Amino acid sequence: MSAREWIGKDFYRELGVSSDASQDEIKKAYRKLARENHPDANPGNAEAEKKFKAVSEAYGVLSDPEKRKEYDEARRLFGSGGPGGFGFPGGGQGGPGGFDLGDIFGQQGAGGFGGLGDMLGNLFGRRGAAGGPASRAQRGSDVETDVRIDFAEAVRGATLPLRLSSPATCGTCGGNGARPGTQPRVCPLCAGSGLISRSQGAFAFSEPCRECRGRGSIIDDPCPECLGEGVSTRTRTLTVRIPPGVDDGQRIRLAGQGEPGRGGAPAGDLYVRVHVNPHRVFGRSGNDLTITVPVEFTELALGGTITVPTLDGKVSLKVPAGTANGRVLRARGKGIAKRDGSQGDLLVTLQVVVPSKVDGKAKKALEDYADAVAKQDPRPEITALLRERSG
Fold first, then answer.
1. Distance CA 73, CA 53 (A)
2. Partners of 251 in the beta sheet?
3. Which residues form the CR-type domain (predicted)?
4. Does 297 show up as a binding residue in the annotation?
């Protein structure tokens, strides 16, 4: 894609966010639109597929702080109008007295890129090299998807198959855009540079070649699958390895598994966001597992030993006599073990269970106990304050 085409697109409008939107707002908008327009959710819907590609392209730029900074700078310099104008006189066709955006990003003379074309080289995939097909290489956009796993899988790690529908190198033409058995030919007008140089007074300017639309090559017989784009949406199955101890909401990066690059550039990355289903008994705090265990009052008052489950077995813990309600006991090494060698603990919170109804011998025993401890005030500070206010 040429500089003119990229700056001419309003990526903020594609995602439905303002130009000062935060990264979280951009991510939230992309994920919503990607889900709504995903090819799997809209089979045979060409408009949805087109929208899916557009929002993926927009997110690929705006989610990268460096690309977004360069894109914003370009919009500030050239305005945010549609392709061609950008606030310059002459409307972008290079009319008399006017400027063409291609002039600014073009070559100075017949050699390399100059001026702002070099300054914004990273954004448009240019590196200041000589004007040939390689100089228009563009890294593929990053792609993000979601997976949901069980609590135990998050703790121990897992290997999951991931079915993904996304733009990828066309399998029919291998990415060159031409029907199998044919090849793109070098554009005879620009000799493969994608740019046409012209002079205006003492200055030399250039603009995208109208014959090949700045590509540097012409496809006479387009690939029937991708229609000459070299990229098509296809479904592929990848294997994702979830590391032990992954957190809910954590992203896993699969390098080179995003959208394919253009002009020989590398593919983008695939980011897999992990969502962890809660466990019916266990919770988590960092590397530690947590569990709340109901106990009788007598177990805390008299002390004893309780047995609690772990993720892969059980463990016995000693409860000291006179233990307070809510105390946390620690079973060392029974938490989450990560690949870096760190090992968490199992944190056991003791919670007294009060029976809803007491009768018979149990009631008599509690009454005797209440009489036995009648002289012991369990809340001396509150009692003292009540006495002050009543006096």
1. 24
2. 273
3. 157-235
4. no
121 sits in which H/E element: none
Residue 391 and residue 384: Cα distance in Å, rounded?
11
Residue 296 lies in a domain: yes
Six-digit token pair at 19? 């130009």
The answer on whether 187 is annotated among ligand-binding residues is yes
Spatial CA neighbour of 202 closest among 123, 108, 282, 135: 108
For residue 366, give both structure tokens. 């509690």
Report yes or no on 186 lying in a domain: no
188: closest CA among 212, 164, 223, 159?
Answer: 212
Q: Is 190 annotated as a binding residue?
A: yes
The answer on whether 226 is annotated among ligand-binding residues is yes
Is residue 293 within 8 Å of 352, Cβ to Cβ? no
- Domain of residue 329: give its range: 283-362
177 is in an annotated binding site: no
- Asked if residues 249 and 273 have their Cβ atoms less than 8 Å apart, the reply is yes
pTM: 0.51
Tell me whether residue 9 is in a domain.
yes
Alpha helices in 166-239 (DSSP H): none
Judge whether 173 is annotated as a binding position: yes
Q: How many domains does the chain have?
A: 2
Question: Rounded CA gap, 218 and 211, in Å?
Answer: 8
CATH (domain of 31): 1.10.287.110
> For each of the chain's 391 residues, which pLDDT tens digit applies?
444 555 567 888 889 998 888 988 898 898 889 888 887 778 778 888 888 888 888 888 888 888 888 888 777 765 544 444 344 433 444 443 334 444 444 443 333 333 444 444 444 444 333 344 434 557 888 888 899 999 999 999 999 998 887 777 787 887 788 899 899 898 888 888 888 887 765 566 777 888 887 778 888 898 988 888 777 777 788 889 999 999 999 999 999 888 877 666 788 898 999 999 999 999 999 899 999 999 998 899 999 999 999 988 999 999 999 999 999 999 999 999 887 778 899 999 999 998 888 888 888 888 888 888 777 777 888 888 888 888 6
Last residue of a domain, one of 101, 136, 171: 101
Is 132 flagged in the annotation as binding?
no
- Look-up: residue for tokens 């899988």? 153
Size of the chain, expressed as the number of residues it contains: 391
Q: Is 388 inside a domain boundary?
A: no
Q: Which of 85, 101, 117 is the last residue of a domain?
A: 101
Question: End-to-end distance of the chain based on CA atoms, in angstroms?
Answer: 86
